[in-house]
Amino acid sequence: MPLLLFVALIGATVGGLLARQRKGELQRVNEQLHQINVALRSLSYAPIGGRISEKESGKNFFRNQELEKDFLEFKTALELAKSLKDLTEEKKAARGLGASLQRQGKYQEAIKYHSMVLAISDLEGEDSGNIEAYGAIVDCYTELGDLEKAGILYDKYIARLETE
């Protein structure tokens, strides 16, 4: 019996030492991966990480009614998307800018960015977000008192709703 206990004790000790060694290795690898990730995010040509953070920050500021901050974040995201020639991200940032300006009561500028969403959709040949853009433009023209333009775009908005 004491021999069996002695063998079990040695086995547990060896197992514990190996587990500690593996834990140390995992921590070193994790630290290396973290450093690589930080370095990649700092690169100006990093395809995803850099621009998403601005867009996500803009969304958070937008939700919290921090309109000046969300405008700046969406503007940065738009400039980054343009420099990377990424139309999808450009469209998302333009949508955010339009919504931000609309909440600030800057309807003419908001129309410009909502129209940019429509123009990018034409370039891409993909129309996701167009219904929302038409609706937002209609709202802006209505707020500006230009009911004729609002009516024309409202008809396009309804036509899009019916086709989807």
TrEMBL record:
- Keyword Signal assigned to the entry: answer is yes
* Recorded superkingdom: Eukaryota
Q: What Pfam families does its record include?
A: TPR_12 (PF13424)
Q: Name one GO biological process term.
A: chlorophyll biosynthetic process
Look up the signal peptide feature and give its range: 1-19
Keywords, alphabetical: Signal
What InterPro entries does the record tag this protein with?
FLU, TPR-like_helical_dom_sf
Q: What is this protein called?
A: MalT-like TPR region domain-containing protein
Q: What is the organism of origin for this protein?
A: Gossypium mustelinum (Cotton)
